[in-house]
Design brief:
This protein is an alpha/beta fold. Among the domains are: 171 residues, Rossmann fold (3-Layer(aba) Sandwich), CATH 3.40.50; 66 residues, no CATH class; 96 residues, Arc Repressor Mutant, subunit A, CATH 1.10.10. The chain is built from 22 helices and 13 strands. The chain has a four-stranded mixed sheet with strand order 1-2-3-4. It has a three-stranded antiparallel sheet with strand order 5-6-9. Strands 7-8 form a two-stranded antiparallel ribbon. Strand 1, helix 3 and strand 2 form a beta-alpha-beta unit. Helix 8 packs across helix 9, helix 14 runs antiparallel to helix 15 and helix 14 packs across helix 16. The model has no long low-confidence stretch (mean pLDDT 95). The structure holds glutamic acid. The site of glutamic acid has 9 residues, from helix 8 and strand 10. The site of glutamic acid (GLU) has 9 residues, from helix 8 and strand 10.
């Protein structure tokens, strides 16, 4: 077979050579050890936690080493593509602090190693396709769907491995005349790799997450170009990662199955093999067993979920860090005030079997993250969330920012800040009572006589003075307690509850219910300070009128 003639027959339009491309995309001038890596998603419109785990791993590896992170859009499967998906992806990742140095961008592409969208790179793939054919490393296959299905059925019946290999590789050694005849007849063809591997052979391979692997050689003549001339993922990623000078491929471990083929391809193409970082899937507990997070069953897989629930970006980021690097939490305890980006991330610490996602833990991390924010920041983030997901609440926050910030400042700062909020969605239940429309009518404990409650509220109104400091205010509450025959001595009460009609805690609860409509609230003195004299008094009067 004259391979040169075959190459010319299949790719007459290709005039560039691999050397031309090498010159066009020269090695990057980066310092020793700089990691060049990428995210290479398919634009399906669904951005999930797995993308973030991968993105973050890639981003940390690149930027910690003074390298480059770029975005390549793998849009070779036009059927799966959703319009606007690239924009959604870029926006979402940016929202989580993953910024690309180059690659596909909202307003086109930027960088010297593009185009960064695979469909625009067809001409580049064809240069290497032609090279492989001219070297006898690839060949056209004219098998129809029916022939392939029949072959498969026969292999299944014989209990053989299914696929296009060995004696089943029907077009492997056909003559130039046969090929020409098919081309003249206009028959569609795919380009296949001529595998020289054998499943009898194994070799060692080092993955940065999985460690040492024993790999069995690939013996399948896999497809490189589909019948429309568009490459498969396998071929495209080899060409792209080489020409874009990728040093590390960070991707999901579902690609391990085809890694033997990828290694073979890099070799056949004369490319240096990048390092591989194969990340395990995100798992969750389902009853007593672990399973992969699923798009269908688990809403928490989608990144949009975290936005609509109102998890601050920083919280999700911190949580992913704790998930990926078990030493992150210790580091965080020792470095409470540093940004998470100061942590030395290591892909070697990733769990090879995949990480276990724990919603309760995420909530906990988020509480800590929010507790550390100042009121100004909480106000900004909460307002942004509410404007989109609870516009009515958002309008209230926007109508009087100072009022909202005073509310949000309660319990902030200091050594032990309050941890009331895990997500912005919780905020309305926590602070809604500050707004008249969300205030609920108090429901007093029927164990107490209504006249006693009314007595407490009336006495409070008589002595209430907004300018009192906290201790004077509390002394007044204690005095009311004693005047109505309740006790302020909680120890004595605990020892013999039957001896007292009630305590200072009950009196506080009457007041709290009257003012907030709830039995739980932040510090009542502070609440009254923020509500002001008029609002506090009118609420107490309204409660009285319902008794
Ligand atoms: N397009 C592939 C995917 O979305 C990319 C895998 C890779 O990063 O190489 O799974």
């Amino acid at each position: 077979m004259d391979h040169q003639a075959l190459a010319q027959l299949l790719f007459p339009q290709v005039t560039d050579t691999p050397e031309d491309l090498e010159a066009r995309f020269p090695p990057r001038a980066l310092p020793e050890g700089a990691v060049v890596t990428r995210m290479a998603p398919s634009p399906t419109g669904f951005v999930h936690l797995g993308n973030l785990v991968q993105g973050l791993t890639a981003e940390r590896m690149a930027h910690q080493s003074g390298g480059i992170l770029f975005l390549r859009v793998e849009d070779t499967d036009a059927k799966r593509e959703v319009p606007g998906a690239v924009e959604v992806l870029i926006d979402t990742l940016k929202h989580y602090g993953i910024q690309f140095d180059e690659g596909a961008a909202i307003d086109g592409d930027n960088g010297m190693y593009g185009p960064y969208r695979q469909r625009q790179r067809a001409g580049i793939y064809h240069v290497y396709a032609k090279k492989l054919v001219s070297e006898g490393q690839a060949y056209p296959c004219f098998c129809t769907e029916e022939e392939l299905a029949a072959m498969r059925a026969q292999q299944e019946a014989n209990k053989e491995t299914t696929g296009y290999y060995g004696k089943y590789a029907l077009w492997r050694d056909r003559s130039l005349e046969d090929v020409r005849a098919q081309l003249d007849a206009g028959s569609p063809w795919v380009l296949r790799f001529r595998s020289t591997g054998s499943i009898e052979n194994q070799f060692k391979f080092d993955d940065l997450v999985k460690g040492k692997l024993t790999i069995t050689e690939n013996d399948m003549d896999h497809v490189l170009l589909k019948s429309d001339g568009i490459p498969t993922y396998h071929f495209a990623h080899a060409v792209d990662d080489h020409l874009m000078r990728t040093t590390h491929v960070v991707r999901g471990d579902e690609w391990l199955a085809t890694l033997p083929f990828h290694i073979q391809l890099f070799k056949a193409l004369g490319f240096k093999l990048p390092k591989y970082v194969h990340i395990g899937p995100l798992m969750k507990m389902d009853g007593t067993s672990k399973r992969k997070l699923s798009k269908r069953k688990d809403p928490e897989l989608a990144l949009t979920y975290y936005k609509s629930e109102g998890f601050p970006v920083e919280a999700v980021y911190e949580y992913i860090m704790t998930l990926l690097n078990s030493n992150f939490e210790d580091w965080r305890r020792a470095n409470a005030d540093l940004p998470a980006s100061a942590f030395k991330f290591s892909p070697k610490k990733l769990n090879p079997a995949g990480s276990l996602f724990d919603y309760a833990k995420l909530t906990d991390v988020s509480k800590n993250v929010i507790a550390k924010m100042d009121a100004e920041k909480v106000y900004t983030l909460l307002s942004q969330w509410a404007a989109e997901f609870d516009p009515d609440f958002g309008a209230k926050l926007a109508a009087d920012p100072d009022y909202a910030k005073r509310i949000l400042a309660i319990g902030r700062g200091g050594k032990k800040p309050r941890k009331d909020l895990a997500v912005w969605k919780d905020a309305k239940a926590y602070m809604g009572f500050f707004y008249e429309e969300y205030l609920q009518a108090p429901r007093f404990d029927p164990a107490f006589d209504q006249s006693v409650i009314a007595d407490v509220l009336n006495r409070f109104l008589e002595t209430f003075d907004l300018s009192d400091d906290a201790s004077t205010w509390f002394e007044k509450v204690k005095k009311i307690t004693q005047d109505i025959g309740f006790t302020t001595d909680m120890k004595a009460y605990k020892a013999d509850p039957a001896a007292f009609p009630g305590t200072v805690a009950d009196v506080s609860t009457f007041l709290r219910l009257a003012v907030t409509g709830q039995t739980n609230s932040p510090d009542l003195y502070t609440v009254m300070q923020i509500l002001g004299k008029e609002r506090t008094e009118s609420r107490i009067r309204a409660a009285l009128s319902q008794l």
